[in-house]
Amino acid sequence: MKAVLIFSGGMDSTTLLYDLIHEGYVVSALTFDYHQKHAKEIRCAERTCAKLRIPHKIVDVSVLNDLAPSSLTRDSWDVPEGNYAEETMKQTVVPNRNMVFLSLAASYAIGLGAPHLFYAAHAGDHAIYPDCRPVFVSAMETALHLCDWNDIVLHAPYLRLSKGDIVKKGIALGVDYVDTWSCYKGEELSCGKCGACTERREAFLQAGTVDPLEYRD
User: 44: left (phi > 0), else alpha (psi -120 to 50), else beta?
Assistant: First the structure.
């Protein structure tokens, strides 16, 4: 079974990559470079795909940086710190990012003759990221059925899972989380305070295991 995975190099999509390989999919990974502050995740994606011998394409969508204002795309905007439940975390939303990614990934999948398209939206994303909610996934499922003569099936298998659940699954699959990146600030070490770092640290605590990354704080 051929599949395309939208692969950021973060914890969730890396776990899903290992999961798909375990399930027997022939995976092609697609990473998007929109000149995000945390571009370090792209290097993680490269290392993981090289290690697992997965075909990997990095696509320049830097136009998204210009069009979509966010604390992840604007140097003049500070990345907010704290928990994802806080209202300030909406500053990390890159408007319509996943619709853009899914549309381009669908074109890639059709070209490859891959009927399955995966992305790693999870339950913790629902509160602030509109393009990770079940209703959005459902709408995109319908759109992808209709976008071409070749049917594309969209999968978001982690949609109801917490990040802690994902870490537990990843540990069982043998995921090497040292080759993942979450921090939004794009510094040498993870800051430990932004929403992505806070959620990551909580996830490893919930899973009862140790995060292999070093934190500045």
Answer: alpha
Number of domains in the chain: 1
* pTM of this structure: 0.94
- To the nearest 10°, report the CA torsion of 12, 17, 22, 24: 140
Q: What are phi and psi of 183, to 5 degrees?
A: -55, 135
Write the CATH number for 11. Answer: 3.40.50.620
pLDDT digits (tens, 9 = 90+) for 167-203: 999 999 999 999 999 999 888 899 999 989 999 999 9
Which residues lie across from 58 on neighbouring strands?
31
Domain that holds residue 184: 2-207
Residue 133 domain-assigned? yes
Residue 216 maps to a domain: no
Structural domain contains residue 212: no
d(CA 115, CA 103): 14
3-state helix, strand, coil in the chain (%, to 5): 45, 15, 40
Q: What is the mean pLDDT of the chain?
A: 92
Residue 204 banded pLDDT, cuts 50, 70, 90: very high
Q: Six-digit token pair at 156?
A: 């978001």
